[in-house]
Amino acid sequence: MLFKIMGYIMKLTALATFSAMAFAVSQYGLGTLAAFGKLFIAMTIACLAFVLVLAVILRIYLNLSLWKVILYIREEIMLAFATGSTEAVMPQLMDKFEQAGCNKAVVGLVVPTGYSFNLDGASIYLSLALVFLAQATGVDLSLTDQLLMLGVLLLTSKGMAGIPGSAFVALSATAAATGSIPVAAVALMLAPDRFMGNYRTTVNIIGYAVAAFIIARWENLLDLQKANDVLDGKIAYQPKNAEISLPESIPAANEKAF
Fold this sequence. Notes:
The protein is mostly helical. The chain is 72% helix and 0% strand.
């Protein structure tokens, strides 16, 4: 029954997204699509700039290639990109970081903590979305208003990594708490929010990866040679499940029991 309900929801998601876009265009005109296009471009540039900064930090501090790290965790990135949630890939990420030379204790602390406090992609999206809503509603945000909204976002954004679409709730809560932006204006983000979720999850996972390697190196708990070998493909990744072997045959006594 549960899977049936989830199947109906997945089939209706595309229709719901189209309906949200149609509502925005009917209410605010075709110019809304152009504004959304600028928001997508701004989000893309901001995410690429942030990833470039991470690449420079990783290269300077560890002499590792971020591109190789991304290729190493590409399956997890694609799964999170498709589902809009990074929660489902946390066990695989932790396993891969351990096999890439990061100490188990560091991975066990950094990755789960990062799911609540290291939401890089979500932070970029929320800040851009609030500026977009302020401009759309003609609200002039002072420096005090911006700092107040930043402080509220630091609270409302916690724990949103595992829930697709939770950024929309964080925006609504922030608008209601600060009063600077009309809460009704948040409905404008209903249409692009699903697409923005793919940006958020991708950048979030890249942030977790860089944080795990940096903190492990900081605590002298990183096998740098092993990390280079794994990222270069010299050591193949072996899932933990692959280590479990079943007996080839069941003893006769057990067969009778069954």
